Amino acid sequence: MAKLLLTKLFSSSPTKSKEEFTHLCSRGFLRQALHGFLPEVFADPNLFSCLLKACSTSHESLSHGRQLHGFIVTCGASADRFTANHLLHMYAKLGNPQAAALLFAGMPRKNIMSYNILIGGCVQSGDLNSARKLFDEMPERNVATWNAMVTGYTHFGFDEEGLEFLSQMRRLGLHPDEFSLASALRCCAGLKDLTFGQQIHGYLIPSGFEADICVGSSLAHMYMKCGRLQEGERALNVMPVLNVVSCNTVIAGRVQNGDYEGALSHFSLMMASGFTPDQVTFVSVISSCSELSALGQGQQVHALAIITGADSSVPVTSSLVSMYSKCGSLQDSINVFDDSSDESDLVLWSAVIAAYGFHGHGRRAIELFEKMINNGIEPSEVTFLSILYACCHSGLKGEGLWYLELMKKKYGLLPSLKHYTCIVDLLGRAGHLNEAEALIKSMNVEADGVIWKTLLSACKVHKNAVMMERVAEHVLRLDPEDSASYVLISNVRAAAARWNDVSDVRSSMKERKVRKEPGVSWMELKGEIHQFSTGERLHPRQNEIDEYLRELIGKMREQGYVPDTSMVLHDMEDEEKEYSLAHHSEKLAIAFALLSLPHGAPIRIMKNLRVCVDCHNAIKFISKIMEREIVVRDVSRFHHLKGGNCSCRDYW
Ligand code: ZN
Ligand code: ZN
Fold first, then answer.
1. Average model confidence (pLDDT) across the chain
2. How close is the Cα of 15 to the center of ligand 1, in Å?
3. How far is the CA of 612 from the centre of ligand 1 (A)?
4. What pLDDT score was predicted for residue 60?
5. Which strand (E) or helix (H) includes residue 305?
6. N or C: which end of the chain has fewer CB within 10 A?
7. What is the rounded distance in angstroms from the CA atom of residue 17 to the CA atom of residue 381?
8. Separation of CA 586 and ligand 1 centre (Å)
9. For the residues of 330-364, what is the DSSP string, one character each?
């Protein structure tokens, strides 16, 4: 009876058109649509779907949604599968999985769509178990079901499961959509599974998805993550338009693969093409400058970050703090930290604590660490690593051990291999070799080559030949190609005149084709990076450099410099040893710097390995004779050399 009356009302008001109603719904004017058209909706339950769709767009609509649900039940439309599915969708979309599940359970007739909607809701709220249960109990599935499972599992980091769903889907002859393909490629990147990634690529080419922005950049990202830079860039070139995101993918990809100069050159290209770099770009570019110790370029990028306003974001600020520190300018990194408005960010604090540690200011690092805790910020594993590193490089044994305990006991954080390596380094340098060895054996994580190598160099410094052999065996077991350990063992045995044992080492080196990692040093001159490799004569001004170095070493000898050949393989002639020492990359770089920089300008160089004992000593002499400040950044720390002394107090 009521229905009949309403129908009459509807037909008697010709001004209210169906178009007006759908227009209101599509623009989200739910209240107006409902109030103005209630009789019409009751007359034609199909109109509920429009209202429900409008309702799904905003969280505030949940109360309207419940009201609508009530109306639907009242007018008997809830048995209609079409309307019920829309209702289900609304609850799933508004993040109310319980209501959706309840409704679903009461639905007399469900179809694939009903299941898909509910699975979508579960996936969206991260309830993968329920999604899986529904998936398993479905009598029938379609492409959308499978796609929902692939994107759901991959979104929450279940890379293997996500890829398994994709494989099954392909085996059934179903076609994944661009979202599941892009997700699957990101899984391959996460797992570094190049083979699977290439299979997906093979599938993309005929499907035409290769040119899709989302799929194309995921493909490029996958290749770059797997170390295939060229394929990655080729994938980007296939895409119809370059944009900031694709530029960022290239730059980040090059950084991940250690091609920092390539990253900077793509950045120049990006700027020249008129794209405005964003936060993501700046973080990659600043870290490239920092890896290359390119202070000049770093300053330019900083200026650009200020212009674009990106410098106010915490990730950018943190990378600036560590860039300045790693480029040898601690003061600049402190300035950036002091200027930053966000003092509540842990990453930023960790960066500045690491900066102090890197420059050997252990006490200052500790002060900051304590200040941070007083400000109510809870330290993370990363902060503890920074503070342990700082203690280690300032020889603060007691403090280092105390922080290791604090980390475990007070903050319940499990120290990783990196934390332990810092402590082994700290104990080893201080000569507590047995304590360091005992620590390695008591760790709850498995030792790697690096931690044993750390102890090995301590054995060398403290001349403990017996332990050295034992430790070197561990190193070579875990890292059979470590040339430095072979050289060490061989020299220890040579010093004890154990010639048979020496030739054993030599032959196993030959057998394994071990070659020494070449020492490489860099320096930046007028925005250009100059590279020097030990024993190689590749620089255009090499003759001049050799000549200059020969004169310089002559002057140094007059002042008492004696080359230390203990780390050169013993079976070279003395003269040959000295020649090879004189051509260590850091000496070449410093000679070039002295030749090309204006008088009095500080020299900044960077080296890929630790500075060797002889070079360290030689650079001290150079800083005194030439009255120059020399900053050397090696793989483990900074050395500020001035007037014949080094900031590391010969502790590195
Ligand atoms: Zn050297
Ligand atoms: Zn030093």
1. 85
2. 91
3. 4
4. 57
5. helix 295-308
6. N
7. 64
8. 6
9. HHHHHHHHHH-S-TT-HHHHHHHHHHHHHTT-HHH
